[in-house]
Structures are given as structure tokens and as C-alpha cells.
Amino acid sequence: MDGLEFVRVAGRRVSHLRMSEQAVAVVDTNVLLNLATPVVDGRPQAPSGADPLKALLTGYDVQIPASVLGELTDATGSDDLLAAAADLVLQAANHLTTHDVDARIDEPLGYGLDLGESECIWLANELGAELFITDEFSTTNYLFVTLALDDRNTLFTTPHVLCTLAVHGILPVEYVETALTYYVETKGWDTQYVTQLRTQYLSE
Fold first, then answer.
1. What domains lie within the chain, and their CATH numbers?
2. Per residue in 125-138, pLDDT tens?
3. Which of 23, 18, 20, 6 is nearest to 129 (CA)?
4. What is the dihedral of CA 194, 185, 80, 93, to 10 degrees?
């Protein structure tokens, strides 16, 4: 695939996207919200010293269906952490390329995926995006997303992308280590999956 290369990290041969190119990434709503959350979370356990949302938006050419903006807008209007994260993403909306795909998808793609997920996958396939980033890795939907994508190599997860950003020095390794622990504790991310990514990308 264009934009992919192999490097050796801690003695391992790891595939990732070259950050020298603006690889196209299609992301779903939860990815954007999760990346914005530690930035607006003032609690002591939240990682500090970096901005993972900004890192994604400057490191990749991020594309979304218009429905993602709608879901972000729906999440605003309260005083909780989710609303604060949604507000932050909307403030950065000028760094997102939005596509109106409603008229081109009449119903979900199947596999148990909802319409929002279906629109993101359809857009990733339509654009031939290097990445489709999802946080469905802790659910059975991850398999369904894999089946729905044209090229299974395009499927990334938020922790995978965080590790890739650390490999390229866009995010400090120490920050990503702390962020992964934060997400495991606050979002219930799968510990075994996160540990595997840590071993593959962050171990020295």
C-alpha cells in the first residue's frame, strides 16, 4: 500500500504509515471524542503535556462524513466531559474535510453496523483512504468493520495511531504511555490489546 513502510522498533519489524506524507484518514466520532478528552480533562489522572487530537489533525489528512459533525453537535450542550470534548473537536472542524454521503447510502452496510459507522466505512472505501480509524476494537463490530472495508490493511485503532505518532516523535513516548493507561482506566480499553501495542511499538 502507498504510504506504508517497515521500520525496526525495539528490534521488531513494524509496519506503519510514513508521516512525511499526508495520508488520508477517515475517522468515526468516538475517535475524535476520545482524542479530545484528555485535553479537556482536568483530573489528575489525565495525561498532560501534549494534544493527541491536534497530533492527529496535523499528521493526517482527516476526512469525515457530515454525520460525524452532527453527532459531535448532539454531544454538546451540557457541562460534562463528553460535551467539553465535542466542543474542542468542533473548534478544530476547519482541519476536517467533510463529505455529504447521506444521499449515497440508503441503509447501513450490514454486519450489524449502524448508519454512522457505515457512512465512515463507505467513505474510507470511496476515497481509498490509507486508514480507517475506529474504537470498535473491544467489540464484535471490529470484525464486521474489517469485513466491510475494501482493504483490511487500512483498519487502525486509536491506540494504534497513538503508538504510530509516538514512533514518529509527533507525540512523546512518555505521553502515549500515560495516555494508554488513562484510556484503559477511564474508557475500559482492552488491557491485553493495549499491552500488545505497547510491546510492539513502545518497548525499548
1. 21-202 (3.40.50.1010)
2. 999 999 999 887 76
3. 23
4. -20
